[in-house]
Design a protein that fits this description.
With 348 residues, the protein is mostly helical. The protein has 17 helices and four strands.
Length: 348
């Protein structure tokens, strides 16, 4: 072992400090800020609708549809079956499709670079690290069982939507009054949260302080879907065994508990493409991001920049040229808001 290390030290140079994690933090912070802005704008728009147009006039932000993944899946299926992009929640479908494409091209990059829930989860994980001075992970048997839960949840939604709903049923659902106001119903889940839902959210926060990424790792069906696309992504993190000094730094910083130091190539549904392992590796060109179809290495900072430009550029293009805005007028929302407040809209 000593001879190997001496040889490596004489033929390699330390990896340059790319500071990718600093870029990732600001990218996540930017995304969180965008979502907070959208949430506040949507909240005040609902208040304007509830006042029947007598209050402060605010326009509805289409980006709020990013929080309607199931409805967006239904819209995507409707487009596939009919070739028609519905005008109820068009931006939701665009955002959903962009997230799926990002997951395929850039691994689970949406989770690690954009998702605001993932960002909050990581911040709670960082607090946990400082409290416990180490990263807590359940025993392997329990971890495998818990990780399967998000796939069970995903399987239920895929069965309920993809398998069970016919093209006619999908079209019928899209144009139901329930789907028209589903964004308002989603907001009311948080503003008029039930005691049970409140304590579930509190429990998730507490568990995220104990186990890093508790929600994302064990319960998020979105993450499960993106994890499956991650497995067939053309990009991979590869480790050069000939230059690896077995310092285990990569495994220690991995938020998904992947033993990067023990594999030649990271192929895992849990990898969020955070690039922390590549960023911390002390030996140049030992951990690299590669496009496997061309066996081409890509500088990690360039890879991150392309990811962010692709994701936000796709949404900006849709916002500028469509489809983005829905066709529901404020007047129609005002006509339906009383029924929403009475709780008379139920899932069809």
């Amino acid at each position: 072992m000593n001879m190997k290390i001496e040889k490596i030290e004489s033929t390699t140079t330390p990896a340059p400090g790319t500071k990718v994690q600093k870029l990732r933090f600001y990218a996540q912070l930017f995304s969180a800020g965008i979502n907070i802005w959208i949430g506040l704008q949507f909240y005040y728009w609902v208040k304007y609708i509830e006042s029947q147009g007598t209050g402060w006039q605010v326009s509805r932000p289409p980006g709020v549809e990013s929080w309607l993944p199931i409805g967006s899946l239904v819209s995507l299926l409707h487009w596939i079956y009919s070739g028609v992009i519905n005008e109820i929640h068009p931006s939701g479908m665009v955002i959903f499709l962009t997230i799926l494409t990002t997951a395929f091209l850039f691994k689970k990059g949406f989770c690690g670079w954009v998702c605001p829930v993932g960002f909050i989860s990581e911040m709670l994980g960082n607090i946990s690290d400082k409290i416990f001075k180490r990263r807590i992970k359940p025993p392997a048997w329990l971890d495998y069982f818990l990780r399967s839960l998000k796939y069970i949840i995903l399987g239920f939604f895929l069965w309920a939507v993809v398998w069970s709903m016919t093209p006619a049923a999908i079209k019928s659902f899209i144009y139901t009054p329930y789907n028209v106001v589903t964004d308002i119903l989603m907001m009311r889940f948080f503003t008029d949260i039930t005691p049970f839902a409140f304590w579930v959210v509190v429990g998730l926060f507490v568990m995220s302080l104990v186990i890093r990424g508790f929600w994302c790792r064990y319960f998020c069906p979105y993450g499960a879907l993106l994890g499956l696309l991650n497995l067939i992504s053309p990009t991979r993190i590869r480790r050069a065994e000939s230059t690896c000094i077995d310092c285990s730094s990569c495994a220690e910083v991995c938020p998904a508990f992947i033993r990067v130091d023990k594999v030649k190539e990271v192929v895992s549904d849990e990898c969020i493409a955070c690039m922390a392992c590549v960023d911390i590796c002390p030996v140049n060109k030992t951990l690299e991001i590669k496009v496997v179809t061309k066996n081409k290495t890509m500088p990690v900072m360039k890879w991150a920049a392309v990811l962010l430009i692709f994701f936000w550029g796709s949404l900006l293009t849709a916002k500028m040229f469509g489809p983005w805005e829905n066709s529901i007028t404020d007047k129609e929302y005002m006509q339906r808001i009383e029924t929403v407040q009475k709780g008379e809209y139920v899932h069809p």
